[in-house]
Amino acid sequence: MSNLRDEVEFFLEGIRNALRMEGGDIDLIDVGEDGVVKVKLTGTCAGCPFSQMTLKNFVEKELKSNVSGVTEVVAV
């Protein structure tokens, strides 16, 4: 892949499919040079009390495991 943002976007597609099954979604906002990925949870994920757990235990874990250079995932 050509750059970090492209790699993140590629792996987010698989994550989106899982979130969409529950009525949620995720938008990629930014990928910083420091490897911090900024996302926005939408749909049912936006108001879910477990959204922070989903973000860290699912989204961040998957991206860190599959995309070299990702250091953290934060919701904006």
Plain-language structure description:
The structure is a single chain. It is built from three helices and three strands. It has one domain (4-75): GMP Synthetase, Chain A, domain 3 (2-Layer Sandwich), CATH 3.30.300. The protein starts with a helix and ends with a strand. It has 76 residues and is α+β, with helices and mostly antiparallel strands. Strand 1 (24-31) and strand 2 (36-43) form a beta hairpin. The longest helix has 18 residues, at 4-21.
Could you tell me the CATH topology label. Answer: GMP Synthetase, Chain A, domain 3
The oligomeric state is: single chain
Gyration radius, in Å: 11 Å
The coarse overall form would be globular
Secondary structural class: alpha+beta
Sequence-ordered SSE layout with sheet pairings:
Blueprint: H1 4-21, E1 24-31, E2 36-43, H2 44-47, H3 51-66, E3 72-75
Parallel strand pairs: 2-3
Antiparallel strand pairs: 1-2
Structural features:
about 80 residues; alpha+beta; globular; GMP Synthetase, Chain A, domain 3; 3-stranded mixed β-sheet
Compact description:
The protein has helices spanning 4-21, 44-47, 51-66, and strands at 24-31, 36-43, 72-75. It has 76 residues and is of the alpha+beta class. It has a 3-stranded mixed sheet.
